[in-house]
Write a structure and sequence with these properties.
Layout: E1 5-7, E2 17-19, H1 22-31, E3 39-43, E4 48-58, E5 61-71, E6 80-85, H2 91-101, E7 106-111, H3 121-142, E8 149-150, E9 154-155, H4 156-162, E10 168-171, E11 190-194, H5 202-210, E12 213-216, H6 225-240
Parallel strand pairs: 1-3, 6-7, 6-11, 7-8, 7-9, 10-11, 10-12
Antiparallel strand pairs: 2-5, 3-4, 4-5
Helix pairs in contact: 2-3, 2-6
C-alpha cells in the first residue's frame, strides 16, 4: 500500500502535531479519501522525512501526529541545472514536473530570442510559484525529500552576464559530439541549455559555448522542447547518476 506524502516545511519532533494546510486537507480527505489514523509521510524539502498519522478534526481541518523521523538521501550524485527556454501552455509545467522526478537540482527558466511567452513582473512571480507547486507535487509522488530550486525567470542575456565559465551542454542538431562520446562530468554543477519551441538562435548557441557549454546532438531527429531536456537528464542519470 502506497503511503501518501505531504510537504510540510517545519521542524519535526516525535509526538508533535502539525496542522495541514487547507489545500492539503481537501486533497487528503476529498481526493485521497484518507481515514482517521491513516499512516502518512511528511518531508521538509531539505532532506528530512517523518512517519506520521493523520488526525481528522472535522471536514475542513486535519493534522498529523509525528511518530518517527528519518533522514533518507534519495538525491542523484549528479548536480544538474536545467536552463530551459520558457515554452507555451502546459509544456513548461510538464518539463518542471518530469525534470523533478528525474532528479534535477536547479531549474532556471529563460526568456530567449525565439521565446513566445511574455510575462509581466506580477505574472512572473505567479508563474514561478506555480512551477514550485508543481515541483512539490512531483517530490511527493517520486519520494524525493529535497525540493529542486526553481529560480525566477530571466532573459538569456542576464544569464550570460551572471554566469562564469560553466560545465554543461547545449543542444545543437549539427554538433559533432554525441552522448556516447561525452566525457564524464566533474563534481561541479552540469548545466543543460534547452531552447523553447522555436529553438535557440545561432548567436545564443555561440554565446553559450563561450561560457563553456559543449554543443551536443541527440541523433538525427529533432525533439520537442519538453522532450529534449528530459531525454538528456535520463541519459546522464544512466551514465553517471543513480539509474
Amino acid at each position: 500500500m502506497r503511503i501518501p506524502r505531504f510537504y510540510l516545511p517545519t521542524p519535526y519532533q516525535p509526538g508533535a502535531k502539525v496542522s495541514l494546510e487547507k489545500a492539503q486537507v481537501h486533497y487528503a480527505l476529498n481526493v485521497l479519501r484518507l481515514k482517521h489514523n491513516r499512516p502518512v509521510e511528511l518531508f521538509d524539502g531539505q532532506g528530512v522525512q517523518a512517519q506520521a498519522q493523520l488526525q481528522i478534526i472535522d471536514r475542513r481541518h486535519a493534522e498529523v501526529e509525528i511518530i518517527a523521523i528519518d533522514t533518507i538521501n534519495r538525491e542523484s550524485p549528479l548536480h544538474t541545472v536545467l536552463l530551459q527556454g520558457i515554452s507555451k501552455g502546459d509544456r513548461m509545467d510538464f518539463t518542471i514536473q518530469k525534470a523533478t522526478e528525474l532528479g534535477i537540482t536547479t531549474i532556471q527558466p529563460l526568456f530567449t530570442e525565439h521565446c513566445d511567452v511574455k510575462l509581466s513582473a506580477d505574472k512572473q512571480l505567479k508563474r514561478q510559484q506555480q512551477w514550485q507547486d508543481i515541483a512539490i507535487s512531483a517530490c511527493e509522488q517520486s519520494n524525493r525529500n529535497h525540493l529542486p530550486t526553481i529560480l525566477p525567470p530571466i532573459p538569456f542575456t542576464d544569464w550570460l552576464t551572471s554566469a562564469e565559465h560553466t560545465q554543461g551542454l547545449v543542444l545543437e542538431p549539427s554538433a559533432a559530439l554525441s552522448l556516447k562520446q561525452l566525457p564524464p562530468p566533474t563534481n561541479d554543477p552540469l548545466a543543460i541549455l534547452i531552447g523553447p519551441e522555436g529553438g535557440l538562435s545561432e548567436e545564443e548557441v555561440a554565446l553559450a559555448c563561450q561560457k563553456g557549454l559543449q554543443p551536443l546532438r541527440l541523433g538525427p531527429r529533432i525533439l520537442r522542447t519538453e522532450t529534449a531536456g528530459l531525454v538528456i537528464l535520463s541519459a546522464l542519470q544512466t551514465l553517471w547518476g543513480d539509474f
